[in-house]
Amino acid sequence: QTEPDPPEAVATLPRLKIDDISREIETIPTERSAIAGVPVLSHDIFTNGIAYLDLAFDVSDIPEELQPYLPLLGKLTTQMGAAGLSYEAMAKRIALRTGGLGASVSTGLTADGKGNWQKMVFSVKALYRNVDEAAGIVQDILTAGDLDDAARMRDLILEKKNGLHASVIPSGHLFAQMAAAAAFSVSAWRNEQWHGRTQLRFIAGTADRLADLQEDLREKMARLKEIIFVRNRLHLNLTADEEGLRLLAAAAGRFSSLPAGEPPTQVEAPSHRPTQTGIIIPAQVSYVAKVLAAPSYDDPLSAPLFVLAKQLSNGYLYRHIRVQGGAYGGSCRYEPMSGLFAFLSYRDPHLTETLDVYRDAVEEASRNQVMPEELEKAVIGSIGALDRPLDPAGRGYTALIREFSGLTDPDRRRFRGAILDITPEGLRETARSYFRAAAAVAGIAVCASEERLGKANEILTEKLTLEKLM
């Protein structure tokens, strides 16, 4: 485990060369227009007779006390009755006329790092012959949704609680990352609030007291619907070929029936301080996250940091956390569209030792120049992450997110070129200049058993603040 692989063995592995990689980016055809005053993005893509429609509503100014309700709003809106139909009748209608209907809440930074976006997105897909009916279903759930079925509401809330709780162990590293990152930006805080332990506690508390809270919950859902489901917050995204786009555009006229409503306003962002948190979970292993604030996509350091994260993941962290430490995984992530640089471990038998590895990885990257062949592998891996294949729905949705982020094709082309041009010295200088300031302020979160967290606090200089998951 401590011996390096023999060079002759490594040389037998086939691999790409940097010269084999194109400098050109893949673009997504996009046209901008408007329907009844609502901004529309259209993507002329071959979809084999399936049309994809996304409705994105701005939720950036929703009052803070209502923000935790947003994921539940999406679930209740899409999975209860509507327009005079029971849940069972509505579910049958959705199954007969669509290929799927769902809702999600998403957030991120703008490419220049100066702003953020927060959206609730409803997505539906349908065969061309059912496009108008599919749009009608979405119109009905938005304008005539039924929240009176108490038994169905309780089932959905319990389902969401159980789903979140069941995801903690297999996705403990993500829960830890969200907890460690929450203080660094509004989008990171929203991500934790909507998808992390904060959301789990909120849903669990709601489920436990639903009999007392049901009327209040209906009132809050009704209030959110009135604020959010309006034309002045809506952005439409259409993905299909020429025929499908024509059908989608005609069907999208239905949403002119939404009330105009008020456009989103500027609100003061909540502020938080980075914390060192131990989250008690029923597990014999640890999930250790350390998160640093990082530059945005447009920053000159973003491309080398993207490569550095890949190099540390496949090099130093892989050797010390997985091979020598015995964890199932150790990785490093730089997310330029969220402004975060994270160190993570997965199903880790260690805790304090892993935090030491994270510190040593920073020193290693800042002090020693990576070997050219290791850099080449990191560059190729970075391009592989950029060039991940997408289905037609994924391409349309990706274009929508880029629109919200202000990320242009020239930006992406510069980013790709900077990755391909990185040198060993450039990578080391990036590590030095970035980590010197960023490493001084870190968020740390560990998901582990109470016993393991207690033992860690006996060793750590800066103690973890322990809290129960629920």
Set down the secondary structure blueprint.
Layout: H1 7-10, E1 31-35, E2 38-44, E3 50-58, H2 70-78, H3 87-97, E4 100-109, E5 116-127, H4 131-143, H5 150-168, H6 172-181, H7 186-195, H8 197-208, H9 210-228, E6 234-240, H10 242-252, E7 276-280, E8 287-293, H11 302-314, H12 316-323, E9 329-335, E10 340-346, H13 352-367, H14 372-386, H15 392-405, H16 409-420, H17 424-438, E11 442-448, H18 450-459, E12 465-468
Helix pairs in contact: 4-10, 5-8, 6-7, 7-8, 11-12, 11-14, 11-16, 11-17, 12-13, 13-17
Structure description:
By secondary structure, the chain is α+β, with helices and mostly antiparallel strands. The chain contains 18 helices and 12 strands. It has helices at 7-10, 70-78, 87-97, 131-143, 150-168, 172-181, 186-195, 197-208, 210-228, 242-252, 302-314, 316-323, 352-367, 372-386, 392-405, 409-420, 424-438, 450-459, and strands at 31-35, 38-44, 50-58, 100-109, 116-127, 234-240, 276-280, 287-293, 329-335, 340-346, 442-448, 465-468. The strands form 2 sheets. A 6-stranded mixed sheet has the order 1-2-6-3-5-4, sandwiched between helices. Strand 1 and strand 2 (38-44) form a beta hairpin. The longest helix has 19 residues, at 150-168. The chain is globular and about 70 Å long. The mean pLDDT is 95.
Q: What key phrases describe this protein's structure?
A:
470 residues; 47% helix; globular; 18 helices; alpha+beta
